Write the structure tokens for this entry.
Amino acid sequence: MRFRVKSRNLTVHAVAGTHVVILGMNAPDEARKGLLGFAIQRTDHTEGETYWLQGMRTFKVTNPNPPDGVYFSTAENPIQDFLWSDFTAKTRHDYTYYVVGMRGTPKNYTLDAGTSVSIKVTTESDAAASQSVYFNRGVIGSQAYTRQFGDNNPQKFVGSEKAKAYAWLSRGLEEAMLAFIQQADNPRYALRAAVYEFGWDPVSAAFGDALRACKDVRIIYDARVPGGTKELENKKRVTEAQNQFKKHKLTGKTAAGEDVTVPRTENPSYIAHNKFIVLLDGGDPVQVWTGSTNFTESGIFGQSNVGHVVRDRAVAAKYHAYWQALSGDPAQKEIVASDELATPTLHKFPPPAGITPLFSPRADLAQLNWYATALENSTVLDCFTAAFGVNKVFFDVFTKPKKYLRYLFLEEWAVKKAAVVATQKALQKDPLVQVAVGATMRDGAVAGWAKELFNPLSAHVHYTHNKFALVDPLSDDPIVISGSANFSDASTQHNDENMLVVRGDTRVADIYLGEFMRMWRHHRFREIVSKNSAKGGAVEHNYLTPDDSWTDPFYRAGTVKYVQRETFA
């Protein structure tokens, strides 16, 4: 949801998702003279609390040696940026943000309140009627985690402490996944799932309970084990899923005599990469759970992931038909023809309004090229995630100069180490292409920052497993592309995948944008610190500037900060 308030010398534009509120501030050029930053006070009307929000930056003159991990009030150490995000917001809450331009002299805490505005904000519901979106925290390596749990592996906790840590990491993702499955609590309902990795006991148990309650649960799982260097890894993944099925009594038959588990073995060099569940009511498909989240410990609690629920009968029917086509373990040629017929490739831009599902494998790369075309047709802002490198069609888009911001969040610069330098050089040529790469704050990297825990839950992907792109998310007609496919050749032509293209839903776009910026800003800073500290020694505490010179780049036309201020405010 978007909110805006304006006074003569200060404008604040707020974008509220479920757990993130973005505030874009702006001020006339003459009003920035003497401006030391912004203090922000938050009133939580839902919980009856009012307090000044905090940050980790201080003025050197007042806090020359800040202790590790300590936060400071923005009333005394204001935010020196025109873009700020509240990452501690809660879903379905009413807030008032009191934003104050601070002036004066930092010494002896003699700051004065200047122009101020109050903006009332309501965060989105995480369980709306038509579409629900759930992001886990995806930041085991964070100051927030360290403050609550230390740099301790959550797997080593026991009892209530372990439950508390996992609930914090899930931030509603596991709870929503379980709740979706638990809807099938009597014979009126049925579940149809297609999964890649299947290894988290509570999810497996929920499917087992649903089977006993509704007598009709069927799960397609990836049982392909190609040879080569990853043969043992693939065998382990398949065995883990089969062990879960046995443990939770998912190996038998439905009431209709059909196999509960359906192995996908055809075309073993490809992968059945879906992560979706269809809920049927009286035999009719009515809801879909989809997104990037594997049904595993690492998927739900470790790397960043999203679960996306669609309560739309037409969309659910398409997913159910896709599931039925996959259940016969079809050969490549057969399933390609089925996918192309059921979900024709998008050729025109913009796409149809509403929700368009798209299934893979497909005959060619036309759909992948359309995703790239969509990003290139943006006019104000692009946001793009890539867990396994930037495909060449997107590489071509992001290396073309544009006059608007394009944010990329990557797990790593490139899958092949030999390509890292060339990728960095190409993607950093245009300063308006802003790239963040997954990173963790190592011990002593920045004075005043506590050591962070490197994600111990994920063997391969440690930071982001998301697969989504946002086209002009701040507009009145945004496009969200999200699902299981990695925006790659293989995910388009070879693997079993599903994607959603959602056009015109500002609520969905606001949630995705908030979570994207949360992850992007978190890792962007850590990557820069990691790069600088690798040169040797700790980086000095990132002190606040004691005068208004910090505002200069925000008012220098053409700079990244200038465009950022104009974009978000």
User: Anything to note?
Assistant: The two ends are 15 Å apart (CA to CA). The chain has a mean pLDDT of 94.
